Amino acid sequence: MARTTRPPVIAVMGHIDHGKSSLLDYIRKANIVAGEAGGITQHVAAYIAEHNGRLVTFLDTPGHEAFKALRARGAAAADIAILVVAADEGVMPQTLDALAAITDAGIPYLIAITKIDKNNADIAHTKNSLVEHGIYIEGLGGDIAYAPISSKTGEGIPELLDLVLLASDLAELTADTSASATGFVLESTQDPKRGASATLIIKDGTLATGGFVVAGDAYAPVRFIEDFRGARIPHAGPSEPVHISGFSKLPAAGSLFSVAKSKKEAEALAEENAKALAAAPERTAAAEGITELPLIVKADVAGSVDAIVHELSKITHERGAVRIIASGVGSVSENDVKTAHASGGVIIAFNVGTDAIAGDLAQRDGIGIFSFSIIYELSEKVQELLTARVPAVAAEKELGRALVLKAFSSSGKKQVLGARYASGVLTVGDRVKLLHKGEEIARGSIANLQQARADVKDITTEGDFGTEIECRAHAAYGDELVAFVVTEV
Where in the chain is the domain with CATH 3.40.50.10050? Predict the structure, then answer.
């Protein structure tokens, strides 16, 4: 079993809008293999670039904070990470989230200080920001390599790629090309023509046509292999991204894959994995008093489903909770609408459409289908829907308070009292609570108020006053009158 050096697999991570996509786009256009710079049509969410005659695989995974779960998976699957930090902002919350994912994955990383072409770029401040957050770069007490870059001009990007190759050499990445392929699923999608398809990253061995790929509880015959450009190739080696179609079901993004020689072997392995998944603990029932918002989530790729589920898990309400009852890849179907109708839920569609039959059924049954292309807007809408679904509860607001000095007379429910103003405002018609030693003994209302023997509408200032209240319990010296109003929240 002879192991040879393999290309590194790189994850580019960092805070939203810090230039991750711009960096990947520049590398893709300037360094793509086979000289296909410019108008290349990328087929999968990863690609191979070339620098100094050596190959590097980049994972084009989302950098948005909401894609934390997928991003963490990308880091775990990668050999090296590039942490982007913008020169005009420095370290931000999602920078630290990305760093935590890199640290958890236990992989080396380097820093790309981006946007150095901007007028307000401050490289020195950005370096200090890194050190302040425990990221000790070279020259400032640490050994983490960094490169200031501009994705507009390309300045610093060759130096960044030099650092990537150096980190790769230090990591001593190897693979056995004679072994059967193993790796992970980067993303999966439901192709209208090809069915369940997936982007795989090979970490070891060689994938050739003829066998069966097994990923979790899904499997697919390897009838043909497509590279990241969509071209069919006879085989693929370590660190290569490939596209495989014809899975028995959508494989979960992030799941590991291996190769089986026959369909029988593939089915047995998938069934074994399915049993393991089924043995996972089930979700506990909703707590008493908690209103649930059932959701059906449909998205363009499995990675987006994961990201949406992660984002929705952060939505909180003291008396409500989001419950995802179904999720999947592809357009909103008739079955999705029926599931929503049966559960009293709504449908969230991310970058996908709605089948004509499903649309008609949803309109007939009054099922809400909400479509989004921006995950922040999706999250805000679900928070709004959850808040609207939670029933209002009565809340009491104290308006004013007074101390009973003397009970003058009583007739039936009515009693005349002398009192002393304590706080707030007491108004004729207000509901009141009668408290004895701090404990409520009765409720009633203010029928009349007098100050200096003259009727008044309210009491707002310190001093003694007279009042007539309607209340079943008799007030005594030292009791308290508390005016209040009931509102719904």
Answer: 291-389
Give phi and psi for 468, each to the nearest 5: -115, 125
Cβ(182)–Cβ(40) under 8 Å? no
> Using one digit for the tens of pLDDT, what is the confidence trace for 229-261?
889 999 999 999 999 999 999 888 778 899 999
Q: What percent of the chain has pLDDT over 70?
A: 91
Report DSSP letters for 325-389, one per residue.
Answer: EEEEESSB-HHHHHHHHHHT-EEEEES--B-HHHHHHHHHHT--EEEES-HHHHHHHHHHHHHHH
CATH number 3.40.50.620 given to 394-488: no
Taking the C-alpha atoms of residue 354 and residue 119, their distance in angstroms, rounded to an integer, is 45
Q: What is the CA radius of gyration of the chain?
A: 33
Query: CATH number of 291-389: 3.40.50.10050, 3.40.50.720, 3.40.50.920, 3.40.50.300?
Result: 3.40.50.10050
Tell me how far apart the alpha carbons of residues 238 and 241 are, in angstroms, rounded to a whole number. Answer: 9
Residue whose entry in the numeric block shows the structure tokens 């996509």 = 21
Element (H, E) at 273: helix 263-278
77 vs 183: CA distance, rounded Å:
8
